[in-house]
Amino acid sequence: MGYNSLAACVADLDKHGHLLRIKEEVDPYLEMAAIHLRVYEQKGPAILFEKVKGSKFPAVSNLFGTLERSKFMFRDSLANVQQLVGLRSDPMKAVKNPFKFAGAGLTAISALPLKQSLFKAAFQKTTISALPQIVNWPMDGGPFITMPQVYTEDIDKPGVLNANLGMYRIQLGGNDYIKDKEIGLHYQIHRGIGVHQSKANAKGQPLKVSIFVGGPPAHPLAAVMPLPEGLSEMTFAGALGNRRFRYFYDEEGFCISADADFIITGTVYPHENKPEGPFGDHLGYYSLTHPFPLMKVHNVYHRQDAIWSFTVVGRPPQEDTSFGALIHEITGAAIPQEIHGLKEVNAVDASGVHPLLFAIGSERYTPFLKERRPQEILTIANHILGKNQLSLAKYLFIAAREDNESLSTNAIIAFLKHILERIDYSRDLHFYTQTTIDTLDYSGEGLNSGSKLVLAAAGPLKRELVNALPINFKPKEACYLAMPGVLTLQCPAYVNAFTAQQEINALKEELQGFDLDGIALIVVCDDASFAAKDINNLVWITFTRSNPATDIDGVGSFTKYKHWGCTGPLLIDARKKPHHASELIKDPDVEKNINRFKL
Fold this sequence. Notes:
By secondary structure, the chain is of the alpha+beta class. It has 18 helices and 31 strands. The longest helix is centred in the C-terminal third of the chain and has 15 residues, at 497-511. Residues 91-104 have low confidence and may be disordered.
């Protein structure tokens, strides 16, 4: 059976040895986050902070810290939910094998939300400042809710089945927010809440928002799931949690999750914003201060046994990495089924997710021709970049399944090697300029603004990648082999675009004096040794610190009929730029202080 509360989940984890209890009082300013990060790095258990300084409420984190623990929490429902998602993506499965998928239909029916008013007595009122004021990183603009479930309804189609439940960070204080009366609501583009706010704005009406914290673990997972069309987050939460999503409406007409530990209700008025941030985010950098919707607080409710739920995000891997692994377990091939010809797609976690996508598709357009080149996979790439949150990708590497049936998008080095061995830089680079990228990515020209690059490869090998630096390859600056065919090259710190172009032009001229056979990619960076140390460093540095349209060049570059290409190795300038956000660095004093816990 599923959990009826977060407390029940915590008790179950404790019973089975999946919980660390910290009984000593802990400071929510940096200390709790530092403890979480240290435990997560050790693949440790969930953490219950019994005494949070400045608040009467305990807090739990790292619930989803490992895939094994996540699967343990959903051990009674995971298989049926996988069937349910698969059936929604491909209804013909039920026709072909009705007995196998009979349970999925029953799961969906039994998971429908349940409206009951008898739960109202279970809640008491409190204030925003009485909640745990957790600050994760030294430069954060204030305390944030990092595991919220933000609920909004469609003003044209009210009701729970047409509602949106998403995970968008909430700033509880700091900046210009009026204490206990205002909080900040941050959401990125391509989020369901944006549709609801747009409709409310058009009618000149405030958007009603309910923020749930805690509850059964199925609820926060439902808030981040990329669900098939027609499957609501509330129904999914019921199916995954083996317990129907229970709710009621308070006297002011706000939806209340009856199983949540905390609920904050409030309104967002058209075009009322305040500065939100900074916030240490999952790309490994701070997202900066920008105007985002202001939420005027109406009420703050809590259960009698309420436990505050939080996480810490930063450079991957983090707890949200495990979230992603669980999502992949559940959805399986759901997205490939939605895009004809797509076999696999992987948002590379080590790069911060959105900066880098790997995909594999079919290449069947001209099987009658001897020469094979990217054709169908370019169509698939366009479809991927028009698909929900996948459209936020900055770099998309796509390969043809026919070239290697065993190729996997999860094997980073093998996949990159496959592409770099086959790509024709004079033909297979496709730029999208002056377009949208992830809100959290500051490598472009402004907020949500940048460029994209598709690198497509199909056909036989075009080069054999070097496995060591060529003996006579001795550029002026420090250089390392990061992986076969990929070099990291250290250059002076970036000053401005004009100087950078002069430096890259000089580098190109210098490189033409060497034998470049087998070298496919050169990453220009601030610390070549660090970037080459391992594959995670390489993809993080390369793809979070570059904007394709401004930071890519190549040896023997040319433009023909508005198509840019090059004849030699590709160059990516992945140095830190003045407009980039600061990377996340732990506070050394806090790191020393938490040694007292002997984690």
